């Protein structure tokens, strides 16, 4: 019987998002395969995490492409990006917390994603949509943090999945401080 690698990766991502310390035995069980079958696919946890990283990069790049970050107002592009990346948010939450992936040097895929998202924020700043006192790098990191936090809150049942997009976009674009109406 052929093993569906995508199913194994998505099962691993779902489990590791909820329980980052899960063992390879637990990952195999979550995927509905034996530990030996899992090890034939991934030599160890590091290989599994690297495969999850590749999947996360591919999904982020596909979301960026679908969001069309260079089209229309930058705020609308951010809204589209959050909508497009939402299905991968749990995987991104896991990867965001796996900081050992980035010891020493960052994967070229993440660099491309960072640059594309930062360019979106720069475009919004140049167009007068976004505050210029916050760097595009900071806005990019804030977006990642909100996506990860939102995914964790949804997976834990503390937030309704239907509220994910609204909460992230409103907090990121609106800012955390309530503004007085004139």
Instruction: Give the termini separation.
Output: 67 Å
Strand content: under 5%
Shape designation:
elongated
Tell how many strands the DSSP assignment holds. Answer: 0
* Helix count from the secondary structure assignment: 9
Oligomer: single chain
- Give the H and E element order: HHHHHHHHH
Q: Note poorly predicted spans.
A: none
Please provide a written account of the structure.
The protein is mainly alpha-helical and 182 residues long. 68% of the residues lie in helices and 0% in strands. The longest helix is centred in the N-terminal third of the chain and has 23 residues.
Write a concise synopsis of the structure shown.
With 182 residues, this protein is an all-alpha fold. The chain has helices spanning 5-18, 24-31, 35-41, 45-67, 74-85, 89-97, 108-126, 136-155, 164-174.
Give me the secondary-structure topology:
Blueprint: H1 5-18, H2 24-31, H3 35-41, H4 45-67, H5 74-85, H6 89-97, H7 108-126, H8 136-155, H9 164-174
Helix pairs in contact: 1-2, 1-4, 1-6, 2-3, 4-5, 4-7, 5-7, 5-9, 6-8, 7-8, 8-9
Based on the model shown, name its key terms.
single chain, 182 residues, mainly alpha, 68% helix, 0% strand, elongated
